[in-house]
Amino acid sequence: MSDFDDDASDLEESPFFVQSLAKGLSVITAMGTQHSQVSLADVARATSLTRATARRLVLTLERLGYVRGTDGLYSLTPKVLELGFSFLGSTSIPEAAQPHLEALSRSVGESTSASLLDGTDIVYVARVSARRTVSLSIDIGTRLPAYATAMGRVLLAALPDRELNEMLAGLTLRQLTERTIRSKDALHAEIDRVREQGWAMVDQEALEIGLLSIAAPVSRAGRVVAAINISSSANRVAAVDLVAEFRAPLLATARAVSAELEHRDLR
Amino acid sequence: MSDFDDDASDLEESPFFVQSLAKGLSVITAMGTQHSQVSLADVARATSLTRATARRLVLTLERLGYVRGTDGLYSLTPKVLELGFSFLGSTSIPEAAQPHLEALSRSVGESTSASLLDGTDIVYVARVSARRTVSLSIDIGTRLPAYATAMGRVLLAALPDRELNEMLAGLTLRQLTERTIRSKDALHAEIDRVREQGWAMVDQEALEIGLLSIAAPVSRAGRVVAAINISSSANRVAAVDLVAEFRAPLLATARAVSAELEHRDLR
Fold first, then answer.
1. Is B11 in Cβ contact with A90 (below 8 Å)?
2. What residues in A contact B155, CB-CB < 8 Å?
3. Structural domain boundaries in chain B
4. Cα(A189)–Cα(B176) distance, rounded to whole angstroms?
5. Is the predicted pLDDT of residue B60 greater than 90, yes or no?
6. Which of A81, B62, B80, B215 is a Cys-bridge partner for B151, taking CB atoms 3.0 to 4.6 Å apart?
7. Residue A21 is nearest to which of B17, B24, B119, comparing CB atoms?
């Protein structure tokens, strides 16, 4: 079942909901999960749409240049990428952060990133890889659960109490590594600590054992809008040294990005 | 006027064209050109839709999580990025190329990339930046005119004659730098040369003066599906040295990526 079919009765009652837009977007995401060309029957199956509906949507996407077809087999075109990058065009945060993250990465010799909160996930919007960490595949658009990451905890710490409590209540903590935080009480206490100290450190709780991250908030007009981090390997640096060495340059960079955003808003 | 309104009469005649999908996608791209939140009136103006239609589409996108609204002002959410990355999920080329491009970049100390042909443009689908070239902003999804780039000429050279001639006939050559190729005859001669030698070199014709690139084709099942390149700066290396130094490792990497794609198809 696709997302919008889950509560179709509710949605169909709304005169504002445009079913064919929702269905068309589900066709794009469904085609993105296939590593090869797909038939109209494949699309219909993956989206729970009728074959006739799938056909009209795929042909419309083909006409618009988002899909290419040969001999009844269809695939997405690179034009779909532009659709995604619409988001990056709509926010000045990646552009403002990138040069500062590059300078920070050069100065500390580690990878740096910026991310935003989207629901209960963080989404990477900028990333500078230190050459030595090429093995770890994090790219713009990568999503990770906020609760298990340093950037996520910085962003959760900035939520108003009511919103934070609602989110925590609905959350399921998964053991992403053997060190991922296990209880919501411990998570809440950790978030309180982040609120007090103004930065977060996560020691091998997300992605893979061996990964350390320290993060700080970026503000715009007094509101936290993003987080930036420095990530390193437990093989190279102990958690306590990560904080001692990187906290000051990280906080300075966070202030610089915040100032840059303020400056852009005034232009 | 938005794209699909240009020949609305033609399209409206087709029973297969889903107008509201086309309009919804145009809302996403229009919102991506704004660097801030927009009102429904802004969306209507940018897309040439009525205010009522714009409202239904924006509310549908909000319901689906692609748009976020507060106080009548709307912006895209990072979920839109996922839509774009659908394309990357649908092709195994970036994944197959990335480790080889990283090894190549490390061994030659320059930036490396992979791109696909989309219409008359190349679109970057993988990129490894040598630390020293951070100033130049090329990212996944970046589009450049094929005729002015080395990767583009490799991809044009792989087109059947009829398709190539049709494309060249419809093309307008723009002077991207003072060195960009000026005549279609010269371009055709250059493409013939690329066909013979199996690689292309472009000396400061695209993007900016100072940029050199050498490119080679990647094949899958005997058909060219992508191009990879090494790009460098005219300050560091002369065009003739670029070829002498980098051609062999570039061609070896192109063969390795082609073999990797073949291997994946056989699995």
1. no
2. none
3. 3-80, 91-266
4. 56
5. yes
6. B215
7. B24
Separation CA A210–CA A232 (nearest Å): 8
Taking CB atoms and an 8 Å limit, are A81 and B81 in contact across chains?
A: no
Confidence check on the interface: ipTM exceeds 0.90, yes or no? no
Chain A residue closest in CA terms to B123: A78
In chain A, the residue whose alpha carbon lies closest to the alpha carbon of B86 is A32
- pLDDT of the residue at B208: 60
Residues of chain B contacting residue A35, judged by C-beta atoms under 8 Å apart:
89-92
Spatial separation of the C-alpha atoms in residues B40 and B127, rounded to whole Å: 37
Rounded distance, CA B226 to CA A236, Å? 37
The answer to whether the CB atoms of B82 and A134 lie below 8 A apart is no
Domain A3-79 has CATH 1.10.10.10: yes
- List the CATH code of the domain at B3-80: 1.10.10.10
Residue A74: enclosing H or E segment and its boundaries?
A: strand A73-76
B91-266 has the same fold as B3-80: no
Nearest CA in chain A to B10: A63
Q: Calculate the average pLDDT of chain B.
A: 85
Give the percent of chain B with pLDDT over 90: 50
Which residue in chain B is spatially nearest to A133 when comparing CA positions?
A: B102
Cα separations in angstroms, A96 against A256, A265, B15, B244: 9, 11, 45, 39
Would you say the C-alpha torsion A108, A114, A120, A121 has a positive or negative sign? negative
CB contact under 8 A, B83 and A57: no
Spatial contact of A103 and A228, defined as CB atoms under 8 Å apart = no
- Rounded Cα distance, A143 and A125, in Å: 10
- B127: three-class secondary structure by DSSP: strand
CA-wise closest residue to A232 among A91, A133, A114, A131: A133
Asked if A56 lies within 8 A of B87 by C-beta distance, the reply is: no
Residue A259 has φ and ψ, to the nearest 5°, of -65, -40
CB count in 10 Å sphere of residue A219:
17
